[in-house]
Fold:
Amino acid sequence: MSAPRTFDDAAGGANVGSALAAAYRTLAGSDSAKLDAEVLLAFVLTKSRASLLAFPERALERAAAERFAELLARRARGEPLAYLTGEREFFSLDFRVSPAVLVPRSETELLVDVALQAIAGLQRPAVLDLGTGSGAIALAIKQARPDAAVTASDTSAAALAVAEGNAARVAVTVRFVESQWFAALAGQRFDVIVSNPPYVRSADVCGALEFEPRLALDGGADGLDAYRVLLAGAREHLEPRGALLLEHGHDQRAELSILAAALGWHVTAAHDDLAGRARVLALAWGEP
Structure:
């Protein structure tokens, strides 16, 4: 995608229809150009996308057009749409996001589904979300299971501030802990531990990913550094028969399974996302 060169290039300078037509061209290198342009203009005008498309003749004031052009330029440079609007839907909940947190991905909803399955037969289950970021996973679990005692931890105070704001936004209560993985959780045990840790190989944190917090993405040279920490420490924090649920990259399942086995874990289930890609491993301690 190339950034718009002038106000007229970006917004057409006349009405909603011409602004969108120009924006589609500006973002033509993106698979989601049409959607992105419509979402951004709807955001600027505080209107629905349906309203924009129904009334393309609506005049576009210059201030709104210039704001739209600014956002288009940022999107054309690869900045995530969620950072431009400040919002992202996840598990049918609307979350605030900022560059302090990873943008929640739709494929991560599978991790929530697997966690809810794991606690389905338990009363007042204790759940830990390690590396909570925006809080999306922890809050989605708590919203679906209000009786669950959910703890969400992150090493980033800025990320926790976003997560706490989201808890108020969706009106659910979880316990937030600032912690470098298990460091601040000594003596605490949980029925289920979930984590979507950094698992991108260092060399692959590039392009659009560079807009998101590296701390939440960079998993080291092989992408497995965070898993080594989680697998080494999780046993002391799981109840007997507890489950460790880990999201992973689509090409990491085999390596992660081998690493887990070497550290005393076994795979109880492997789950693929809706695109058919390997996405979540469920692990238990000891021999199967």
Summary: The chain has two domains: 7-78, 88-285. Strands lie at 87-90, 93-96, 126-130, 149-154, 175-178, 190-195, 238-247, 265-272, 278-285. Residues 1-12 have pLDDT under 50 and may be disordered.
